[in-house]
């Protein structure tokens, strides 16, 4: 089954997000039908902060490795590492040539604002012209940055789908009414971020969500496990809570 078809089943596609080849290979061996990448994990592993737009080379290097996996791979390219539509399109075309099946392309910017809708529509259209077979998951950060905004989300979901996006990703959306509204409006598969206690798989399946991503959760839990196992050697007390997104960002800023 190809990557596009995995979004059309009778249950959500669970998409775990890897940060290096070993994590991706382990997830594929465990039976997951597709693998994504986490931009936080990729950036932090390189000693960089996430969403700063400077991990293009690291992202491409990981994509070359993950393309060896026996399952489809989708790559998080943040905002495309450029504001020029032709540059983003060229990047996705290169990923396509490597055998990458999909990309996440977000409208959130490093300064906490959203890209103008008309600009993002132009980028999406350019990407689809350059790499039509790549599954373009258009992420909107209307619930991720600042106060959740359903109307802006619906406007962007509709515009991105009309521009050619194959799916829409709304990280941070959790309420039934909001999710149903996006499903009714977008007309393309909806991706929701798995948030423990807020977007449980059974409920997402009942609502008709098409894809459930783990985002940076696996990477952050791996960091937690690393510290816990090391601390267990001596039994010394160490804070073993799962680091938050902000905790990881602070780690690499030191």
TrEMBL record:
Superkingdom field: Bacteria
Protein name: 2-methylisocitrate lyase-like PEP mutase family enzyme
Protein keywords: Lyase
Pfam families noted in UniProt: PEP_mutase
PANTHER family to which the protein is assigned, alphabetical: CARBOXYPHOSPHONOENOLPYRUVATE PHOSPHONOMUTASE-LIKE PROTEIN (AFU_ORTHOLOGUE AFUA_5G07230), PHOSPHOENOLPYRUVATE CARBOXYLASE
One example GO MF annotation: lyase activity
């Amino acid at each position: 089954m190809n990557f596009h078809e995995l979004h059309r089943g009778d249950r959500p596609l669970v998409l775990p997000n890897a940060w290096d080849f070993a994590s991706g290979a382990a997830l594929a061996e465990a039976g997951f039908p597709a693998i994504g990448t986490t931009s936080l994990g990729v950036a932090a592993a390189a000693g960089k902060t996430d969403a700063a737009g400077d991990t293009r080379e690291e992202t491409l290097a990981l994509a070359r490795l993950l393309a060896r996996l026996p399952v489809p791979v989708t790559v998080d390219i943040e905002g495309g590492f450029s504001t020029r539509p032709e540059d983003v399109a060229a990047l996705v075309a290169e990923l396509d040539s490597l055998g990458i099946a999909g990309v996440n392309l977000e409208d959130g910017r490093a300064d906490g604002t959203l890209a103008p809708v008309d600009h993002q529509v132009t980028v999406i259209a350019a990407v689809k012209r350059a790499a039509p077979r790549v599954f373009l998951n258009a992420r909107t950060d209307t619930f991720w940055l600042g106060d959740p905004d359903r109307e802006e989300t619906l406007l962007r979901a509709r515009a991105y789908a009309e521009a050619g996006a194959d799916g829409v990703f709304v990280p941070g959306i959790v309420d039934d009414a909001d999710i149903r509204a996006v499903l009714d409006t977008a007309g393309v598969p909806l991706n929701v971020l798995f948030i423990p206690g807020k977007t449980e798989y059974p409920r997402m399946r009942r609502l008709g969500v098409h894809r459930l991503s783990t985002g940076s959760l696996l990477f952050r839990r791996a960091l937690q496990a690393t510290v816990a196992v090391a601390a267990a050697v001596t039994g010394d007390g160490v804070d073993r809570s799962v680091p938050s997104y902000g905790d990881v960002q602070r780690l690499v800023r030191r």
